[in-house]
Protein 1
Amino acid sequence: MAGKIPAHKSSGDAFADLGFSPAEAAELNAKSILIDAIAETMEKRGLTQADAAKACRTDQPTLSKVLRGRMESVTIDRLTAWLTALGRSVEIRVKPFNARAKTGQLVAAR
C-alpha cells in the first residue's frame, strides 16, 4: 500500500482534536448543538430554508451557510433567537460559584 494515512484516536471532542482551545471548542460544540436543533425543527415542521429564514428574520443564504457549518458567521445569541422564532424553548442555566475553580466553562447539552 502506498501512502498510508495516519489515524489518531478521538478524544470525543472533534473541535479539541482539530486543535481548538478548550474555550473555542466549547463554543463550537454549543453552536453545533443549536444548529442541529434548528435543522431538526425545520424538518419536523416541514419548513424550507426560505420559510425558516423568514421566521428567523434572516435571509436564506445566511441560514444555508450556518446549516452547512459556517459557524463563524453567527453567534450563540443569534442561534437561540432563531430557535425561539421557530417555536423551540432554549434554557440557559448558571451554576453556583465554585471558589476552587480557576475558570468556569460553557457546557451545552440536548
Note: Residues 20-85 form a domain with the 434 Repressor (Amino-terminal Domain) fold (CATH 1.10.260.40).
Protein 2
Amino acid sequence: METIRRNVADLDGSDRSALERIVGHALDENQRLVIQVTSNDSTPANPPAAADADLPEWCDVYGGLSDAEIDDLDAAILERANLSRPAGPT
C-alpha cells in the first residue's frame, strides 16, 4: 500500500482543481490530503471495528457520563481552549 500526503497550500492550481473534483468540495489552504493507493484485492490493515476493539479502556472518556455531564465537560473544554469566548477586543 502506498500513502501520499500533500498540503493543499503546496498544490498548483490544476492539481488542486483536480483533487477538489475528486473529493467533491473545495479544499482549504490549511488542509492536508492523505491518499492511499491499494490493489482491488487488498483489505484495510486496520478495519474500523478492529481498531475500536484494540483501544484501551481509558480512551472511552465519556463512558458513564450523562448527556448533561458531557455538555458541561464540553463547555469547559471549549472555554479552556478559548473557542467559546467572544472574538474581538477585550
Note: Helices lie at 13-23, 48-53, 67-80.
Protein 3
Amino acid sequence: MKTQTQDRYGAVEKCRAVLAVWTERKQAANLCRELGVSASVMWQWQDRALTGMLEALEPRGTREATEGPALPTQIRRLLDRKVRAQDLQSIGRTVLTRRPERTKTLPPEPVPATGR
C-alpha cells in the first residue's frame, strides 16, 4: 500500500531531492523538513536511486567495474553499501539454490592401544 508521501512526489521531485543531498547543496535533515518527509523516506529514495543507477550502468555481459571519476564521500559510501548488499543477496540466493553436498560418514578411527 502506498503512503501519501509516496504519491505526493513524482520521480522528478524525488530525483531532485536525492541529488540535492548527494551534491551537498542541502542537508538531508533540512530537505526532509522542507518536503515534510521522514528521514527513512529520504533513505528509501536514495536507495532506490542507487539501485536504478547500478542496474542502468551495469556493463552488459559482465560484472567487472572500472574506476570512474571521483565521487563525493557520501555517495561512495552509499554506493559501496548498495553493492555489498547486492553481493550478499546474490550469495544468499546461491546458498539457497545449491544442493547440500553428500558426505560419507566414516566409522570412528580406533584408539591406539598403549603398551602399559
Note: Helices lie at 4-8, 11-22, 28-35, 39-57, 73-97.
